[in-house]
Each structure stands twice: as C-alpha cells, then as structure tokens.
C-alpha cells in the first residue's frame, strides 16, 4: 500500500497501475466494496477485482488479463507469416506448404482442401492486423467487431 494525496493505493504489478483506492488506511479484517465505473476500461477493472480479493487474502492472483493463449499467439504468428508470404508473391499453395508442411498438401483436390481455406483465412487475418487491428491486442478484452 502506498499513500498519495488522494488516499491509499494498492500497487498491482500485473495491470501496471493501482486498481484499488481507499480514502482511509486499510484495516485487517475490514470489509471493502469495489466501485467500478462503466467506461472503456470496465472489463479490465472488473477482472482486477478478484486479483485484489486474492491479494488481500494472501492467495495467488491467477493469470494476467492481457496474456494471450498459446493457440492465439500461434494463430497471430501464422497470420503474419501468411501475409508476409502473400506480399512477397507467394501463392496460397506455397504459403500452405510453408505453414503446414508439404506432406499435408494434396497433389489433387487443392481447390476444395481444408488447408487452402485455412491459409486464406490466415492471410485475411494478417491483412486485418496490417490495417490497424493489431492495436486491439494492446487493449485486452476487446475483440474485433
């Protein structure tokens, strides 16, 4: 806890700023209420409340709100690689061979093959990231509309 001119703040390492403010010094065993404004950061603040409760009670806070899952990181990486390959003039088939391995790509029926559609979706996702939606990764909890 740190004292400031506007009250007492509890510094939280995971969210980068103090989500908890108390006008009076905190007391052990006292009950507290969380007040959350309905603004653009409501989701992050609401997610921070259980962290506060866990910290006050000496428990581990759990995973950070902004951490991406392994699957999401892999998909973003694949989308950027697909976009780079497409920008360099690679065909969908060549991109799929690089992303998924040449052995998984059939010689025939490529036009209707599942990995072709997946490659196209990844490349389109890369274009969406390039056009500015990558900024949404910096504000956790918000999905592309």
From TrEMBL:
One Pfam family here: RovC_DNA-bd
Q: Which InterPro entries match?
A: RovC-like_DNA-bd (IPR018754)
**Domain spans labelled T6SS Transcription factor RovC-like DNA binding:** 36-139
This protein's source sits in the domain of life called Bacteria
Q: What is this protein called?
A: DUF2285 domain-containing protein
* Species of provenance: Bradyrhizobium vignae
């Amino acid at each position: 806890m740190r004292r400031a001119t506007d009250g007492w703040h509890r510094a939280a390492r995971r969210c980068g700023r103090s989500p908890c403010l108390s006008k009076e010094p905190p007391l052990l065993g006292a009950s507290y209420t969380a007040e959350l404004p309905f603004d653009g950061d409501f989701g992050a603040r609401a997610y921070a409340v259980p962290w506060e409760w866990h910290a006050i009670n000496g428990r581990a806070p759990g995973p950070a709100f902004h951490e991406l899952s392994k699957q999401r990181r892999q998909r973003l990486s694949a989308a950027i690689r697909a976009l780079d390959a497409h920008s360099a003039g690679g065909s969908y088939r060549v991109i799929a061979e690089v992303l998924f391995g040449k052995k998984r790509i059939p010689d025939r029926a490529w036009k209707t093959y599942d990995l072709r559609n997946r490659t196209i979706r990844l490349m389109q996702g890369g274009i969406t990231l390039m056009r500015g939606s990558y900024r949404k990764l910096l504000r956790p909890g918000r999905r592309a509309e």
